[in-house]
Design goal:
Radius of gyration: 32 Å
Oligomer: single chain
Number of domains: 1
CATH superfamily: DD-peptidase/beta-lactamase superfamily
Number of strands: 14
């Protein structure tokens, strides 16, 4: 009994001390400073951001790896395997040589079936495409809209050029991105038929200011007037919206995914990519761009440009010019020997021609006094070669 009592007393003392220690900790905790909630939140936010980046970086790496794994090289085949007459194409070559055209590349059903290169040129030659540049700018505007960088074609230029909010620029405040895509901004511009505005523009110290400093000749959306300066503003819009140059934006979202490694693109004195006239590449790379549009914005099974943007771009959006065609979003539209098609065209005879019903893409580059000669040769030889 005595031993049992001693044992019970020891247990009671132990439990009492344990309870006292617990109470002491509770009292101490009650007097501690409360945790800094803002600091905890900041730490949590930082951890969440780190987790997000950790998750995104592998995804971006996977995407880049996927792009690298895609075979972006052209496939080649004989004309006859795609329903084309090689004899007619040889006559085409003779006509190209006689006209002084530098190169021509034709793809049908996704295969290059014919190539011609004049003396001193080959498949690695890089050609300036002059105003074909405008169609590339149109494509990149579509990508910027898809990414939410631009709200849409109805976005006003005042969002990108604060100087248009000045009182003296009131007439230009309704100009939208769509007006630039369709050459209907209303800005006075005399480029065709002997006009000197392109030369004055390209020699000015600030190209954007030169364009925006012109008077208005019509209300926005009313009159088609071919304006390279307006297309240059598209490059400035992309740079303002994305924070990188149009060329850099194009490299990331268009040229690299298509394996267009030859692309070069000049800039204006302020470092803004020349959105209307300054792109260069091989004829094969230019043909990839035409094939991309022919396939509804897809390349090797990947959707590069939204299909609805492609469709909008090749629909009539403006009256265009007699003898040249109607106009979409930075593409010309016309029929070739009864087949409806669309094309990018540059001064001196640069062309990317697409004829969907024939599953046909032809690129031509030249330095001719008559810009339209390659069109005529295409209609006289390439279309008939399709049988």
């Amino acid at each position: 009994m005595k031993n049992t009592a001693i044992l019970l007393l020891a247990v009671m003392l132990f439990l009492g001390n344990a309870a006292g220690c617990g109470t002491g900790k509770a009292v101490q905790a009650a007097h501690e400073e409360p945790p800094d909630i803002s600091e905890s939140a900041a730490v949590s936010a930082q951890e969440a951001e780190t987790a997000r980046k950790t998750k995104e970086e592998p995804e971006k790496e996977d995407m880049e790896e996927e792009i690298e794994q895609v075979n972006n090289d052209w496939e080649f085949d004989t004309p006859e395997n795609h329903g084309m007459d090689s004899g007619m194409l040889l006559k085409f070559h003779d006509a190209l040589a006689a006209a002084g055209i530098r190169c021509a590349v034709t793809a049908r059903n996704g295969f290059i079936v014919d190539e011609y290169y004049g003396e001193e040129y080959d498949e690695n030659s890089v050609f300036g495409l002059a105003s074909c540049t405008k169609s590339f700018s149109g494509a990149l505007i579509g990508l910027a809209i898809e990414q939410g960088l631009i709200s849409g074609v109805n976005a006003r230029l005042t969002e990108f050029f604060p100087q248009l909010n000045e009182p003296e620029q009131a007439e230009k405040r309704d100009i939208t991105v769509e007006h630039l895509l369709t050459h209907t901004s209303g800005i006075y511009w005399n480029e065709w038929a002997g006009g000197d505005y392109f030369m004055r523009f390209s020699r000015s110290e600030n190209w954007v200011d030169f364009v925006l400093g012109q008077n208005m000749a019509a209300a926005p959306g009313e009159v088609f007037n071919y304006t390279t300066g307006g297309s240059h503003l598209l490059g400035a819009v992309i740079q303002e919206a994305s924070g990188i140059s149009e060329y850099e934006f194009g490299q990331e979202h268009l040229f690299k995914p298509l394996g267009m490694d030859s692309v070069k693109w000049r800039s204006d004195p302020q470092g803004i990519t020349d959105g209307g006239n300054g792109i260069s590449m091989t004829a094969r790379d230019a043909a990839k761009f035409g094939q991309l549009y022919l396939d509804g914005g897809k390349w090797r099974g990947r959707q590069i440009i939204p299909e609805d943007w492609v469709n909008s771009s090749i629909q009539i959006q403006a009256a265009g010019s007699p003898g040249t065609g109607e106009h979409g979003y930075s593409w010309w539209l016309r029929s070739f020997d009864g087949y409806r098609g669309y094309y990018a065209m540059g001064h001196g005879g640069q062309y990317i021609i697409v004829v969907p019903d024939l599953d046909l893409v032809t690129v031509m580059t030249s330095r001719l006094s008559n810009t339209y000669i390659p069109q005529y040769l295409f209609a006289d030889y390439v279309i008939p070669a399709c049988g």
